[in-house]
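Dear Dr. H.,

I hope your travels went smoothly. While you were away I took the liberty of generating a structure for the chain from your last submission, since the lab meeting agenda had it listed for discussion. I wanted you to have the full record in hand beforehand rather than looking at slides cold. The sequence, exactly as received, is reproduced here:
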Amino acid sequence: MNRDSAKILLLHRPGLDDPAEPETAQALALASTDPELQAWMHTQQANNDAISHVFARVEVPEGLKEQIVSETRARMRETSRRKTIGTALAVAFAVLIALVTLWPGSRSRNDFASFRNRMVGDVQRAYPQMDIETSDPAQIRSYLESKGHGDYWLPANLEKTATTGCKVLRWHNEPVTMICYNSGKNPNPKVPDLFLFVLDRKVIKLKESALDVEPVGNLATATWVTNDKVYLLAGQGDGAFLKKFL
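The corresponding predicted structure, in token form, is as follows:
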């Protein structure tokens, strides 16, 4: 599989589609080793998230579905002999919009479980290129402050853990701070095995209010809320290992 054929990932929906499907698995494997393809994939996923966020915010008027069906039937009867391509496209577009906005679950994807699965899944599939790579936490905070995202709080043990870099991601068109660490298990200080994601509490549906530790794929995750921020820490180890940094 080459870079062009791997762009079937445009149709892949993380958290919904099966990443083990043969062609998808090959494309994801290639993306994990191809920085250009990886950057393209993350751009497409960000665009998809933005579009889904817009659709999810559209309020569906009462009776819209019935109105569309009724008007479509009437139009088809009245224009059965004189239907034009333009009219057919207009009807199809109206039905498409209705299906998208009324699709079951379209309003529920901005929940914490989806966010956690997406962030942790991306790390396991294809580690994203960092905005900056550094072992100096002061440089990371300075960079994030310059982007307006430096108001995060770290547990004491995590504050003392070696960093490897940081990046600003997007979730439903909202910024997500990603800070990566080397816990010391890997002798190469540039290889991360701890990943922290920080998101504003107000932009996500979240029921968890206390520390929550559970596995997601091959990583353990911990969740907590402090000062209107949601924190998600993922690491290569079990829950006991992860709690050492909290």
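Two observations you may find useful: Residues 35-56 form the longest helix (22 residues). The helical segments are 22-31, 35-56, 64-78, 85-102, 112-125, 137-146, 156-159, 239-243.

With kind regards,
E. W.
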